Amino acid sequence: MRCHSSSYAQPTLVYINNLNNINITKLHFKNAPKVFHSVTGGSSNVVYDTLTLDATPENVRSNSEEHRQIRQPQYVTIKNIKVTNQDDCMMFKPGVDYMTITNITCTGSHGILVGSLGGGAGSTNTVTNVYVTKATMVNSTKAVGIKLYQGGSSHGIVTIRNMTFNGVMVQGREYAAQIQSCYGSALTMDCNSTSINTVNAVYFILNLGATSTEYDPVIADLDFPAAGMYNIYLSNFNIKCPTGKVDVLCSNVDGNMGLLVQHQDKVCGK
């Protein structure tokens, strides 16, 4: 049984700040108050190996138990991980560089995500060199995703570069992939702000499995603002949905943006 009080901030279970050469291995974590693990403050050479993180619905009061937040580290390796939670399985925050994730299973989560980025006025957010291989996403609201705030003077500038999702297995729920370029805004007019964000060399390769009936026949929603530079590739994106038809929704995409969708009934177009 856990105690809850709105008067106190919920702590992160394991917090690594400005540390090097850390190994966390062969442990089972259960019911973190909010975030299981966070790596930040320029930490480098951090390894997570053979971990189980469990925040099942019947054991938690809130659905805000996140697996891992990663901010401003370099050279972090995550492998052989099993996560059950109801929020983000993995979040890549500003400053992430050289992140390798291999053999992870996320159940019931909001997915493996970049973001949200660009939320602060005048801020500059970068996420670079992230490699995700062999991820199994079970009953996730999305398997993988990118969340960007809209452009304009009230928000920052974002650069995402060199990111690969390879061998992602989708088992049920909503989108296989989702890119949100106007995250956090309730007004459509706010999404028309000029954006100079850059999302370059992001690859979705050999992604397999099936979504649920939630958005059938849509398996992915890729929303880009009209301005900025975006270079996204979908190759061998073999995701199915219950009806057998497959659609990918896109906004502000044309052939010059390098978006390649193979083995689909519908190719994104502007």
Primary descriptors:
mainly beta, 15-stranded parallel beta sheet, 15 strands, 57% strand, globular
Write the layout of secondary structure elements.
Blueprint: E1 14-17, E2 20-30, E3 35-40, E4 44-54, E5 66-70, E6 74-84, E7 90-92, E8 96-107, E9 112-117, E10 124-148, E11 157-180, E12 198-210, E13 218-223, E14 229-240, E15 247-251
Overview of this structure, please?
One of its GO terms (biological process) is cell wall organization. This is Glycoside hydrolase family 28 protein. One of its GO terms (cellular component) is extracellular region. It comes from Sphaerobolus stellatus (strain SS14). The chain has strands at residues 14-17, 20-30, 35-40, 44-54, 66-70, 74-84, 90-92, 96-107, 112-117, 124-148, 157-180, 198-210, 218-223, 229-240, 247-251. With 270 residues, it is mostly beta strands. The chain has one domain (15-257): Pectate Lyase C-like. It has a 15-stranded parallel beta sheet that branches. The model is unreliable at 60-64 and 256-267 (pLDDT under 50).
Quickly describe the structure.
By secondary structure, the protein is mainly β. The protein has strands at residues 14-17, 20-30, 35-40, 44-54, 66-70, 74-84, 90-92, 96-107, 112-117, 124-148, 157-180, 198-210, 218-223, 229-240, 247-251.
Please work out how many helical segments DSSP would assign.
0
User: Any idea of the CATH topology?
Assistant: Pectate Lyase C-like
Radius of gyration: 18 Å
| Helicity, as a percent range | under 10%
In CATH, the homologous superfamily goes by the name: Single-stranded right-handed beta-helix, Pectin lyase-like
CATH class: Mainly Beta
The biggest beta sheet is recorded as: 15 strands, parallel
The assigned structural class equals mainly beta
User: How far apart are the termini?
Assistant: 52 Å
- How large is the share of residues in beta strands? over 45%
**Strand tally:** 15
Our count of domains comes out at 1
CATH architecture: 3 Solenoid
| Poorly predicted tracts of residues | 60-64, 256-267
Order of H and E elements = EEEEEEEEEEEEEEE
Oligomer: single chain
